[in-house]
């Protein structure tokens, strides 16, 4: 059972950005880690997972996928299985990102099945949750987020390493961020939900914040109560920006 205080995780989500020429940024990230105490991961598009894993083979930087199918294999044109990601060199996978929930109709139930598939393949899931602006304005943020945690996390996570990423939908790619007290309120609610679901093991889960994290706001966010790292989109594409966030841990 994974109970100790989690090591911070800083994960970059490259989304549908990057071609072979982008691997140089990853190489610079690996070379600039210094003596960080954080675990660092880069989640490139599926086309780059294998090449990135090769580039980073001798470094501490982990490679992750951005999604996987809930089934092991079969007639699912265009999809990628968890086992294929693992075979290509991934150690982690982002699941339930709001761009998947909104753009591909992913429900909590489907996300939970994908998490199970990831665990079967030996991947460490980063499970994303977060409210829309309307939900926040309507006072539903905590209910939405804790509901997503309950619905998207299958019971078999209990003895596995995983993280939950709180990503308010309205903060992703917008330059907007919640206030530090707002982040802490949601992270505390996620922690309470995790300990009610998994007991003491829930205290060992890293709860990441994601949504317009950049070098200039990283220190304040990363030192907020119950923030155990960051999921970083746009600012993970440039080595200097991503390293600035890693150095703020
Ligand atoms: C994300 O999409 O996971 C994300 C956090 O994006 P950004 O940092 O660009 O807001």
Per CATH, the superfamily of the domain at 82-154 and 161-232 is Aldolase class I
CATH class descriptor name of the domain at 82-154 and 161-232: Alpha Beta
CATH topology title of the domain at 82-154 and 161-232: TIM Barrel
Number of strands: 8
Outline the biggest β-sheet.
8 strands, parallel, barrel
Strand order, biggest sheet?
A: 1-2-3-4-5-6-7-8
Mean pLDDT across the residues is: 97
Separation of the first and last Cα atoms: 25 Å
Provide a count of the helices.
10
Percent of sequence in beta strands: 5-15%
- List low-confidence stretches: none
* Protein structure class: alpha/beta
Radius of gyration: 17 Å
Unique ligands: phosphoenolpyruvate
Give the topology string: H per helix, E per strand.
EHEHEHEHHEHHEHEHEH
- Please name the CATH architecture of the domain at 82-154 and 161-232: Alpha-Beta Barrel
Portion of residues in helices?
Answer: 25-40%
Shape: globular
The protein's oligomeric status is: single chain
Written overview of the protein:
- This protein has 249 residues and is an alpha/beta fold.
- It has a domain at 82-154 and 161-232: Aldolase class I (TIM Barrel, Alpha-Beta Barrel).
- It contains 10 helices and 8 strands.
- The protein has helices at 23-31, 49-55, 82-88, 98-103, 108-120, 133-137, 141-152, 180-198, 215-222, 239-246, and strands at 9-13, 39-43, 62-65, 92-95, 124-129, 163-166, 206-210, 229-232.
- The chain has an 8-stranded parallel barrel, surrounded by 7 helices.
- The structure holds phosphoenolpyruvate.
- Phosphoenolpyruvate binds at residues 13, 167, 172-173, 210-213, 231-235.
- Phosphoenolpyruvate (PEP) binds at residues 13, 167, 172-173, 210-213, 231-235.
């Amino acid at each position: 059972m994974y109970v100790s205080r989690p090591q911070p995780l800083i994960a970059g989500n490259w989304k549908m950005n990057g071609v072979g020429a982008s691997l140089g940024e990853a190489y610079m990230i690996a070379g600039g880690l210094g003596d960080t105490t954080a675990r660092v991961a880069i989640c490139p598009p599926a086309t780059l997972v294998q090449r990135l894993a090769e580039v980073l083979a001798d470094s501490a930087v982990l490679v992750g996928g951005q999604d996987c199918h809930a089934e092991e294999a079969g007639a699912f044109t265009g999809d990628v299985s968890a086992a294929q990601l693992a075979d290509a060199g991934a150690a982690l996978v982002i699941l339930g990102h709001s761009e998947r929930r909104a753009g591909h109709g992913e429900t909590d139930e489907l996300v939970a099945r994908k998490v199970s598939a990831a665990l079967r393949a030996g991947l460490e899931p980063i499970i994303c949750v977060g409210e829309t602006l309307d939900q926040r304005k309507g006072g539903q943020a905590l209910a939405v987020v804790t509901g997503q945690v309950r619905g998207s996390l299958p019971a078999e996570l209990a003895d596995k390493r995983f993280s939950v990423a709180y990503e308010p939908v309205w903060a992703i790619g917008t330059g907007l961020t919640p206030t530090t007290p707002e982040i802490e309120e949601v992270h505390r609610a996620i922690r309470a939900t995790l300990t009610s679901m998994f007991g003491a093991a829930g205290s060992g889960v890293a709860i990441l914040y994601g949504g317009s994290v950049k070098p200039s706001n990283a220190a304040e966010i990363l030192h907020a109560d119950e923030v155990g790292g960051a999921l970083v989109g746009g600012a993970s594409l440039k080595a200097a920006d991503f390293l600035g966030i890693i150095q703020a841990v």
